[in-house]
Specification:
single chain; 171 residues; mainly alpha; Alpha-Beta Plaits
């Protein structure tokens, strides 16, 4: 039975392309154990301390965009449990083998004041899949984005109509 490598959907025999994303179907999916796990480091080491939850979240998002496994840990857990933010700051941990690369990424990001320069852009482009497999995914993202936009727009119109009827007839 053919499978879609992007959606992980199984198809009946005779189908050659995925109906959702347009990718070419394959006979077998890649084994999940072969794929790298970027959810959390196996051997974590301290990368840095961030003064706020927002800085820690932004730094972790930056590192994950480069494929660096990382997580943040608040200095004191009680306030983050109740408020969702840590006022005393958070520590960011990365995989021991990726520590030097993570330091370089953070240093470059801070040196550029949050701007991506040509070297960073080249690294991001190099980290992307090749054009053959990437084109099917980018083509699939456009209809999905339009669908999400339409759904959000419809919900906003519905909310506005409900608010109008509530204020007109029930208030």
């Amino acid at each position: 039975m053919p499978w879609c490598p992007n959606c992980k959907t199984e198809y009946r025999d005779g189908f050659t392309t995925c109906a959702d994303c347009g990718a070419q179907l394959v006979d077998n999916l890649a084994d999940e154990s072969e794929m790298p796990d970027i959810n959390g480091p196996i051997l974590p080491v301290l990368l840095m301390h961030c003064p706020s939850t927002f800085d820690a979240d932004a730094t972790c998002a930056l590192l994950r965009s480069f494929g660096i496994a990382c997580f943040s840990q608040p200095d004191s857990g009680g306030e983050k449990i109740y408020t969702g933010v840590s006022l005393t700051g958070e520590r960011i941990f990365v995989e021991h083998a990726q520590l030097a690369q993570a330091r370089e990424i953070v240093r470059g990001f801070r040196r550029g004041r949050g701007q991506i320069d040509r070297a960073d852009e080249a690294a991001l482009i190099a980290a992307q899949p090749d054009s053959e497999s990437g084109s099917a995914k980018s083509d699939a993202d456009e209809p999905r984005a339009k669908s999400i936009f339409r759904t959000v727009l419809l919900l906003l119109i519905l909310m506005q109509a409900l608010f109008f009827f509530y204020t007109k007839f029930l208030a």
